[in-house]
Design goal:
By secondary structure, the protein is mostly helical. Helices cover about 45% and strands about 5% of the residues. The protein has a 3-stranded mixed β-sheet. Strands 1-2 form a two-stranded antiparallel ribbon. Strands 3-4 form a two-stranded antiparallel ribbon. Strand 1 and strand 2 form a beta hairpin. Helix 4 packs across helix 5 and helix 6 packs across helix 9. The radius of gyration is 23 Å and the shape is globular.
């Protein structure tokens, strides 16, 4: 009996110890990263949330039509879920990384055998928006592909490199000054969760590359060409920086 009572006391003390350890465990640290929509006005946030009011859905509808006409022979719409969240990715034939827009352009050339889709053209933006929408709510998941490491490292260096006559880097704005204002607009943290994005300033849908080039012009630097290795590398770094954040494309911005 003494042995049984001792065992009960030992078990109860162990249970108390487990409960105490659980109570003493520190709370999980909240993710400090915030999507660009968190920095927008309530009106802009509401426009983004309402698919019937979001102007980007004009491009989504066009992209769906183009997908059905040309892409559905190889791809089912249901198979697109999560695809946009995994780009940029490595292209075996070209032996270099491609963005989602780059992949769509390559498919157009290799399989559809149609005319080249120009960067920032309505056709490419529509298809990209349609594919991106299928990943809405999915976590950004950069490929763990060592072949991307060189380009990813280049993107990290470019992100930290001062550019232009103003000698400013991406990090000086989006890391050090996030939440403050520049030219009347709030500076977001620069996570690429919502591209392609409808910008009220542009009155049109635009890609992440267009936004990166716009930033370069803002610091009075010569922008990299669309599709350049530098812009692809920057997007690889930005995807890594935003890994795990939810895709919320197509976003709306001022």
């Amino acid at each position: 009996m003494r042995l049984l009572r001792g065992l009960r006391v030992w078990l109860s003390m162990g249970a108390l110890g487990v409960a105490s350890a659980a109570q003493a465990a520190p709370p999980a640290t909240p993710d400090p990263r915030r999507p660009g929509s968190d920095f927008m006005s309530p009106a802009t946030q509401a426009m983004q949330r309402d698919d019937s009011a979001n102007p980007a859905f004009l491009w989504v509808a066009d992209g769906r039509r183009r997908f059905d006409d040309a892409c559905a022979r190889c791809h089912e719409a249901a198979s697109l879920r999560g695809v946009a969240a995994r780009y940029p990715a490595w292209d075996e034939r070209l032996a270099r990384p491609l963005t989602l827009a780059g992949r769509i352009r390559q498919c157009q050339q290799r399989h559809v055998r149609g005319p080249e889709l120009p960067f920032e053209g309505e056709a490419l933006l529509g298809l990209e928006a349609f594919v991106a929408l299928a990943s809405r709510g999915q976590p950004i998941a950069p490929p763990a592909d060592p072949r991307l490491d060189t380009a990813r490292a280049l993107g990290a260096r470019l992100y930290a490199q001062p550019f232009g006559q103003l000698r400013m880097s991406c990090g000086q704005c989006h890391d050090a000054q996030a939440g403050r204002r520049l030219g009347g607009s709030v500076i977001p943290q620069g996570h690429p969760t919502g591209y392609p994005t409808y910008r009220l300033e542009w009155q049109a849908l635009g890609s992440l590359e267009r936004r990166l080039r716009h930033c370069m012009s803002g610091v009075r630097a010569q922008p990299f060409d669309f599709g350049s290795a530098e812009l692809v590398a920057l997007q690889l770094h930005l995807a890594q920086r935003a890994a795990g954040m939810a895709v919320d494309s197509p976003a709306v911005r001022p």
